[in-house]
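Lecture notes, continued. The same structure-token format from the folding unit now serves as the input rather than the output. Read the line below as a description of shape only.
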């Protein structure tokens, strides 16, 4: 346990005890003879999301530098280990290593990413919410190995499983109450023990499809960390690190090693953690920060393998306590030599993937980004690419299912589209989840409630071009229990195809199966009836790009405010 000021207090206590015993004061020679602390280096990453190749666009830069790509990441990790004592280095991760991945990894159920990170020397990783995208059984296969139960060994070679240990302390099997995977690990370095507790966010069921978390329950992060910290201490472990897939956000003025105006769930969680916990390696928000929260070192390495957090611990040889902890977020630059083994792995999977990835599916007349416009001073407005996807989903269901509107969740839009030809791989990177479209009946009153729920969840649903409504910044926000009580959406302003919505009438609306199951907190959608499941969302997107090319960015005029549309 490391608490600022503790060393000084301990020294004072020792001096009093020695004086009481009438002992002779310690000489400099005797002081120098005391065991030196054990230096331990942790190399941490998070939210890799299968980015084997360098990410493109804004996702491929950080701190003003091009960054990322597993060939460069592996080299940087090797150099950081060489700079420290290799045997004293432990490499860890805080979840979402897989899921929402580019085609090169996702086409093979993310086996390439697990192979690459194993080869790069990863030791321990917490599970993230995206590790549950394909369910608990698939996560166990990713850990333990074996061919996919449906697709087999896609690349023609056996899958041997992860060369590192996934840790999952707060995901429990509902039927037995036991953790799905090992909750913690103990790693010995020169005789001292370091404990690692791995967890994902308690709210995982709200942001993963119901099929993905079937049979599982998720416990409070701080309570779980404290429970297993006590267990580790009973086993003689005093140096404790939490690998947590939950995070926060600092102010825009903060750099990659700053902690300016830190907000978000990680603050409360860390404040409730036991003092025996020394370090929290966090993730989920894709942010970079380097913080001291309540006497604990709290870090995050952004996303996509663009940073590595270099954490230096000094551990007392006798007590096992952490004496000091310091961190530095290091940019994974692309000016180093590529790791040849990683290059060979990438080339092998690209060969198997063949011409599918490079097939042109459409053309854009301009760059179409997923960035959201500002609404009420926050990024809660429309998105050009989000609107385009909603248009594609409506086009896929308007004739067959008589849909009159489509709504798309922002978390399902994962990358931008550059201007020019669009390949299947690029379209896949935008929509990698393989969600099915679901068309359902909602009354006008239910539609208003769904839109009000946006302000409760803090997430905007991107609307198709048929949808229009007005938001009042002075309106009230509903509650989780009663989102319909909100008055942010001006009553009477909601139109479908230019016609005002009748609260008593019924309308056919298309969403993806994640939203239809109440994902992202949109529980109001679970009240829909006459559900019909359609094609995969990616297929609808590809079909639309092909049919409508050249495609341009939609105008952001579907959600307006009372400042733009004064009350009648």
């Amino acid at each position: 346990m490391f608490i600022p000021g503790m060393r000084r207090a301990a020294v004072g206590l020792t001096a009093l005890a020695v004086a009481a015993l009438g002992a002779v004061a310690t000489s400099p020679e005797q002081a120098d003879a005391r065991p030196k602390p054990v230096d331990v280096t942790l190399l941490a990453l998070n939210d890799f999301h299968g980015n084997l190749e360098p990410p493109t666009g804004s996702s491929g830069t950080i701190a003003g530098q091009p960054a990322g790509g597993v060939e460069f990441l592996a080299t940087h990790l090797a150099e950081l280990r060489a700079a420290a004592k290799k045997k004293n280095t432990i490499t860890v991760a805080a979840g979402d290593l897989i899921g929402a991945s580019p085609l090169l990894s996702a086409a093979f159920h993310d086996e390439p990413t697990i192979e690459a990170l194993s080869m790069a020397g990863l030791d321990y990783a917490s599970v993230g919410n995206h590790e549950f995208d394909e369910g608990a059984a698939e996560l166990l296969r990713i850990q333990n190995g074996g061919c996919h139960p449906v697709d087999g060994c896609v690349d023609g070679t056996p899958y041997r499983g992860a060369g590192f240990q996934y840790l999952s302390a707060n995901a429990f099997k509902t039927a037995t109450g036991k953790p799905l995977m090992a909750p913690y690990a103990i790693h010995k370095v020169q005789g001292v023990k370091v404990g690692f507790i791995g967890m994902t966010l308690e709210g995982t069921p709200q942001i993963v499809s119901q099929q993905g978390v079937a049979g599982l329950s998720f416990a409070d992060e701080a309570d779980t960390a404290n429970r297993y910290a006590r267990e580790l201490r009973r086993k003689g472990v005093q140096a404790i690190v939490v690998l947590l897939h939950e995070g926060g956000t600092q102010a825009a003025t903060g750099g990659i090693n700053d902690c300016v105006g830190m907000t978000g769930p990680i603050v409360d969680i860390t404040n409730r953690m036991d003092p025996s916990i020394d370090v929290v390696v966090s993730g989920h928000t894709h942010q970079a920060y380097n913080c001291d929260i309540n006497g604990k070192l709290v870090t995050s390495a952004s996303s996509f393998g663009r940073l590595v957090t270099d954490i230096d611990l000094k551990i007392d040889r006798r007590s096992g306590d952490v004496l000091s902890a310091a961190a530095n977020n290091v940019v994974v630059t692309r000016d180093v030599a590529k790791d040849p083994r990683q290059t060979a792995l990438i080339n092998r999977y690209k060969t198997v993937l063949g011409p599918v990835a490079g097939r042109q599916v459409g053309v854009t007349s301009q760059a179409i980004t997923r960035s959201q416009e500002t609404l009420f001073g926050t990024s809660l407005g429309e998105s050009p690419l989000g609107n385009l996807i909603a248009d594609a989903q409506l086009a896929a269901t308007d004739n067959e299912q008589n849909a009159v509107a489509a709504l798309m969740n922002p978390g399902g839009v994962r990358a931008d589209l550059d201007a020019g030809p669009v390949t299947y791989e690029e379209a896949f990177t935008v929509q990698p989840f393989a969600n099915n479209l679901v068309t359902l009946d909602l009354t006008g009153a239910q539609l208003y409630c769904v839109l009000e729920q946006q302000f409760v969840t803090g997430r905007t649903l991107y609307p198709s071009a048929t949808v229009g409504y007005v938001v009042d910044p002075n309106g009230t926000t509903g509650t989780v229990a009663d989102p319909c009580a909100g008055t942010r959406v001006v009553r009477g302003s909601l139109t479908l195809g230019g016609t005002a919505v009748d609260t008593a009438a019924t309308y056919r609306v298309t969403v993806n199966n994640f939203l239809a199951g109440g994902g992202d907190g949109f529980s109001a959608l679970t009240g829909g009836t006459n559900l019909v499941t359609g094609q995969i969302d990616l297929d609808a997107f590809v079909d639309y790009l092909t049919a409508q090319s050249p495609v341009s960015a939609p105008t952001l005029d579907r959600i307006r405010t009372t400042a733009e549309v004064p009350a009648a």
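Point for the exam: The two ends are 63 Å apart (CA to CA).
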